């Protein structure tokens, strides 16, 4: 009797979803990817809620066994599919150390990173205006977490967390989180943050940057394949940032003159219907309502 293929429910825009997909691909675990788009009706169906009652991603179904929470999924898959030991060591004490990083991650690095992004680049996606004050608070948590990775978890000259020379599920989970912020080099732009914010946050952490590269290299080509979606997302977020900036300028000063650059962004506010000519014009002159 044919066994049912493992199903991974998720959205590649979600960091923990990407970690699970990369893990399975890197370990030759066969699976079916079921796309559940974040913040859509996909999470509202009774079928999905039977798998993830909290309506989030990721989740898995392995035969009649269902599971959510990405760290639980990663450790389950590592044990059930008997992947190489370094991913989740059989030695109880080594395993507990990996678990310790995973537990730490949820309330520190992930907590700071997701909330920082929600209050900066992702704010328009949630119908919010970016809030610099709140963002600064979460940036503090994020930066402290990166400092902990650099000085505590990346011991000595080891390439991976906990002084290891090969990656564990913790390396993958944390690096997927940081990829949201990261840029690898000028020809490979994956980050959703703009350049100056990314540089401010990440550049002090040289070991963190080397570790990201090592984790990527250990799971290629799957790492890049699964992260491809972030490039598209970055372009969208840049556009949203331009529009939000223009909108707040116009709200502050109705006589704001639109540069060519802003004029290009403006039509998006009106559903992309308006074509603007070049040159500086006031919003009123080109018929943009002052209250947007
Ligand atoms: N601790 C959970 C986090 C799950 C989570 O927050 N997923 C996000 C996407 S990365 C989500 O589904 N957000 C939608 C929502 O919160 O409604 C895990 O590691 O799986």
UniProtKB/TrEMBL annotation:
<dbReference type="InterPro" id="IPR004045">
    <property type="entry name" value="Glutathione_S-Trfase_N"/>
</dbReference>
<protein>
    <recommendedName>
        <fullName>glutathione transferase</fullName>
        <ecNumber>2.5.1.18</ecNumber>
    </recommendedName>
</protein>
<dbReference type="GO" id="GO:0009407">
    <property type="term" value="P:toxin catabolic process"/>
</dbReference>
<dbReference type="InterPro" id="IPR040075">
    <property type="entry name" value="GST_N_Theta"/>
</dbReference>
<dbReference type="GO" id="GO:0004364">
    <property type="term" value="F:glutathione transferase activity"/>
</dbReference>
<dbReference type="InterPro" id="IPR010987">
    <property type="entry name" value="Glutathione-S-Trfase_C-like"/>
</dbReference>
<keyword id="KW-0808">Transferase</keyword>
<feature type="domain" description="GST C-terminal">
    <location>
        <begin position="91"/>
        <end position="243"/>
    </location>
</feature>
<comment type="similarity">
    <text>Belongs to the GST superfamily. Theta family.</text>
</comment>
<dbReference type="InterPro" id="IPR036282">
    <property type="entry name" value="Glutathione-S-Trfase_C_sf"/>
</dbReference>
<dbReference type="InterPro" id="IPR040079">
    <property type="entry name" value="Glutathione_S-Trfase"/>
</dbReference>
<feature type="domain" description="GST N-terminal">
    <location>
        <begin position="4"/>
        <end position="85"/>
    </location>
</feature>
<dbReference type="Pfam" id="PF02798">
    <property type="entry name" value="GST_N"/>
</dbReference>
<dbReference type="Pfam" id="PF13410">
    <property type="entry name" value="GST_C_2"/>
</dbReference>
<dbReference type="InterPro" id="IPR036249">
    <property type="entry name" value="Thioredoxin-like_sf"/>
</dbReference>
<dbReference type="InterPro" id="IPR043377">
    <property type="entry name" value="GSTT1/2/3"/>
</dbReference>
<keyword id="KW-0216">Detoxification</keyword>
């Amino acid at each position: 009797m044919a066994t049912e293929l493992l199903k991974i429910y998720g959205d590649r825009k979600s960091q923990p979803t990407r970690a699970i997909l990369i893990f399975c691909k890197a370990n030759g675990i066969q699976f079916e990817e079921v796309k559940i788009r974040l913040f859509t009706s996909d999470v509202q169906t009774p079928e999905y809620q039977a798998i993830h009652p909290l309506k989030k991603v990721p989740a898995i179904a392995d035969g009649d066994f269902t599971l959510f929470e990405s760290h639980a999924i990663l450790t389950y898959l590592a044990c059930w599919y008997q992947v190489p030991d370094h991913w989740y060591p059989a030695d109880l004490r080594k395993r507990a150390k990996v678990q310790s990083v995973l537990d730490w991650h949820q309330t520190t690095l992930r907590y700071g990173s997701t909330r920082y992004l929600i209050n900066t680049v992702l704010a328009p996606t949630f119908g919010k205006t970016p809030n610099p004050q709140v963002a600064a608070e979460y940036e503090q948590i994020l930066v402290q977490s990166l400092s902990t990775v650099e000085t505590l978890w990346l011991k000595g000259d080891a390439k991976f967390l906990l002084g290891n020379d090969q990656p564990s599920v913790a390396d993958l989970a944390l690096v997927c989180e940081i990829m949201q912020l990261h840029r690898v080099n000028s020809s490979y732009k994956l980050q959703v943050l703009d350049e100056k914010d990314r540089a401010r946050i990440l550049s002090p952490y040289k070991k963190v940057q080397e570790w990201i590269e090592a984790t990527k290299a250990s799971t290629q080509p799957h790492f890049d394949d699964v992260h491809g979606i972030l490039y598209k997302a970055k372009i969208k977020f840049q556009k949203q940032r331009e529009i939000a900036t223009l909108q707040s300028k116009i709200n502050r000063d109705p006589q704001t003159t639109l540069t060519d650059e802003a004029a290009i962004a403006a039509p998006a506010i009106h559903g992309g219907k308006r074509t603007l000519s070049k040159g500086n014009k006031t919003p009123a002159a080109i018929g943009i309502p002052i209250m947007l």
